[in-house]
# Entry
Amino acid sequence: MAAPDPYPPRYKEWDGKGAGIDQEAYPVLRDRLVAQAGVSTGAVEARVNA
# Structure
């Protein structure tokens, strides 16, 4: 069974598009995603920067 996608649908529009992310808000969004997904910041960074 595939692992569930840790990203809520409202964040998907930003995948691969840095323009969608306010640079000041990004750390807050990242921390929120980390908390929701229960994964390390490094894993989120890798996904966001992929």
